[in-house]
């Protein structure tokens, strides 16, 4: 019994150590995600804060408003709310508002849009991660098997996953397949050097035919007036 207990103690200690290591790895994996998110939000708020600060200082100093009134006016104006309870009255501030209002509205709208987009992209990343780590079912295999041959190729798998993740749409995939078929000149199902040579030869033939047609058209343009002049000349066509 003592020997079995001695054997069990290292196993228990090893399991606890493995659990501690796994917990530390999970924390390390979560930390890099939170830090860039916080930094991105700070970077998005920085131009918004600078715009409101500059506008508040200028309008407060020029109009003699308090800090709260100046800040309130900049936020209401930049967010395109504009209650109209306070507004600049001096000519200098009216000129300033002509340039400040469009810029502030654009900066604040872009900053708020980027912040919202950050959270949306984070949720999409989580959903894609769950999708990549979930088990593949028989229904998934049937959906992936586009050609119906009973076997899912790497291309079919990648296309299906991109469609499910909303990375691409079916229209784009169809256009890429059509482009591949145009490049596959010999119809072998793959792109090789022979395909490029065939395509180059086709282009050269088309250029030759186009140049020949242009040359024939130019000859017709030159000879047509001479033919008309010869037909109207009585020496050429005596009575």
Number of strands: 0
Distance between the termini: 139 Å
Strand content range: under 5%
* Class by alpha and beta content: mainly alpha
**Proportion of residues in helical segments:** over 70%
- Total count of helical runs of at least 4 residues: 7
Please mark out the parts with pLDDT under 50 across 5 or more consecutive residues, or reply none. Answer: 1-10
- Major sheet description: none
User: What global shape is seen?
Assistant: flat
Mean pLDDT: 77
Order of helices and strands: HHHHHHH
CA-atom Rg in angstroms:
37 Å
Task: Write a structural description.
- This protein is mainly alpha-helical.
- Helix content is 79%, strand content 0%.
- The protein has helices at residues 2-63, 67-78, 91-133, 138-144, 154-164, 170-183, 193-232.
- The longest helix has 62 residues, at 2-63.
- It is flat.
- The termini are far apart.
- Residues 1-10 have low confidence and may be disordered.
């Amino acid at each position: 019994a003592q020997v079995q207990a001695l054997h069990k103690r290292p196993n228990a200690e090893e399991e606890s150590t493995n659990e501690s290591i796994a917990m530390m790895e999970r924390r390390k994996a979560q930390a890099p995600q939170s830090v860039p998110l916080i930094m991105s939000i700070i970077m998005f708020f920085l131009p918004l804060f600078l715009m409101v600060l500059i506008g508040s200082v200028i309008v407060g100093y020029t109009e003699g408003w308090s800090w709260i009134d100046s800040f309130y006016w900049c936020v209401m104006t930049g967010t395109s709310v504009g209650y109209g309870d306070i507004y600049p009255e001096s000519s200098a501030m009216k000129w300033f508002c002509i340039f400040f209002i469009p810029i502030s509205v654009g900066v604040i709208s872009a900053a708020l849009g980027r912040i919202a987009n950050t959270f949306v992209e984070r949720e999409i990343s989580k959903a894609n991660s769950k999708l990549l780590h979930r088990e593949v079912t028989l229904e998934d295999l049937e959906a992936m098997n586009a050609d119906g041959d009973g076997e899912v190729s790497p291309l079919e798998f990648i296309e299906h996953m991109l469609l499910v993740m909303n990375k691409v749409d079916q229209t784009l995939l169809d256009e890429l397949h059509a482009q591949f078929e145009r490049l596959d000149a010999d119809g072998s199902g793959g792109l090789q050097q022979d395909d490029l040579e065939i395509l180059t030869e086709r282009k050269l033939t088309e250029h030759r035919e186009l140049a020949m047609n242009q040359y024939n058209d130019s000859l017709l343009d030159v000879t047509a007036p001479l033919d008309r002049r010869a037909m109207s000349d009585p020496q050429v066509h005596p009575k």
